[in-house]
Amino acid sequence: MYLTDEEKEMLESDNPAVRKAMKLLVKLGDIYGADEMVEITSAQASGVSYKSIGDPGIMFLREFADEGAKVSVPTFANPAGMDLEKWEEMHISKEFAEKQKQIIEAMKSMGITISSSCTPYLWSNLPTRNEHIAWAESSAVSFANSVIGARTNREGGPSALAAAITGRTPKHGLHLDENRVPTHVVEIDAELNSISDFGALGSWTGGKVEDGKPYFIGVDSAGTDKLKSLGAAMAASGAVALYFVEGITADPMEVSGLERLKFTERDKREEYGRLTESEDPDLVVFGCPHCSINEIENIAKKLEGKTLDKDLWVFTSKAVEAWSDRMGYTDIIEKAGGKVFSDTCNVVCPIEEMNYGRMGTNSGKAANYLPGFCKQKVMFADTGDLIDKVLK
Amino acid sequence: MNVEVRCITEGSADGELLVSTEPIGFYGAVDIDTGEFIEEGHQLEGENISGKILVFPKGKGSTVGSYVLYGLSKKGNAPAAIVNQETETIVATGCILGEIPCVDGFDIPLGELENGIGVHVDADIGKVEIRGV
């Protein structure tokens, strides 16, 4: 691989963290057949939850931090395994909290912003079209590539961190024009109204196209919240990192000759059914990916003056939680018996160690992950239907 | 028998061969404190990978597997070397972080290899030498 003088210097750096980071990127670049590095403008570090990375992850991050690792571009942390302030309310054990704090301290000392969210693009890290970035959380990768038009591969924890330290990533995959083209056409012949409808579409499509790049035709409208739901589900049931929605995220493209799929009302209904194992949740969760302020407002409106019979948790970023507090939405949700947590989510917190076994979600992503990662029986449904299910 | 391979991470090692014809996802499969393979139902269940020349087709599963290889190395329980048919990024990242010699392009039928035979891996020159074969 061609390396600039500056990149060669990093390979020989006195700082062991820089040296290791560059070596890792060069090796990965060689494996992928990259010809050169590309400079990045931001990074997103994954592998933040203690549940995900365990003790070996802590060892690695602490050693890296002790060796003097510092990020050289704005870098934002993915969700942790708990609300960093209200963890006791989540029934997180002291042992888990102690380990989680070690991870956070190591990342903080490297200069990573402890945003602990999968939606950095909603409040502070919004790249521009064609900017090269190195992001690691699969739904954020999908949103950045598809809706924003920035360029990132789906990085792992160490490779994203190495990119953050060196400000480089190997130029291959979705950094290159020739790979940013559709592989499948998906015709929509179904009503898509809610966030969960887009989650159902995403879950269905990811299972069909795997790591392909679907091109959707026939979507009338879809805002940020629905697109983040769509992309997240496709990255969970498959490994989709780039998609196109004709007329919404992309101008019409030449797609003749590609494999064609059709998503019908029946497919939608069957996907809801496939993702639902129990219609009697003992906990309803929203915020996978993390809720926007609009989603929290919608939840609060449905809960205003009502009382919940079962637990209901809303997951979001610290930034959005602050607005929710200010707007009184948190208060409404808490008065009804629910909770608003930030910094974590239903997939990366140790929910399987709490006394829940059946979870309701409006997220196609969560519905795919909860049975395996969290040993939960899932009810996958629209926001309103889930709330109705758990009201007194 | 000598097999030409590609270097993923530098180094050389001697050890006993331990082969899996199934891919390995290291996360949840190996105890980093002992090197014991603990994944139920896997071909290597009950084996110890510490100090072995570990031969398997390729990595799979969670990206956290990289940290497991790193942790094994830090605790002195890593394989002496890893030999793959195709090294994907999880194993490559783990071997780079843990400084475990690793090669790929090992294109001989894994099912015909026997555990316990002596193997020398020289990643620097891209060679795997299987003794007595």
Would you kindly provide a brief summary of this structure?
Chain A has 392 residues and is an alpha/beta fold. Chain A is 42% helix and 15% strand.
Q: How many distinct helices of chain B? A: 2
Report the mean per-residue pLDDT of chain B as an integer: 94
Share of residues in helices of chain A: 40-55%
Residues in helix, % of chain B? 10-25%
What integer is the average pLDDT of chain A? 96
**Number of separate structural domains of chain B:** 1
Parts with pLDDT < 50 across at least 5 consecutive residues of chain B: none
Rg of chain B, rounded, reads: 13 Å
Q: What is the distance, rounded to the nearest whole angstrom, between the alpha carbons of the first and last residues of chain A? A: 63 Å
Count of DSSP strands of chain A: 13
CATH class of the largest domain in chain A reads Alpha Beta
Strand-pairing-aware structural class of chain A: alpha/beta
Oligomer status: heterodimer
CATH class descriptor name of chain B: Alpha Beta
Strand order of the largest sheet of chain B: 1-8-7-3-4-5-6-2
**Largest contact between chains:** A-B, 21 and 21 residues
**CATH third-tier fold name of chain B:** Glucose Oxidase, domain 1
Number of domains of chain A: 3
Series of secondary-structure elements of chain A, N-terminal to C-terminal: HHEEHEHHHEEHEHEEHEHEHHEEHEH
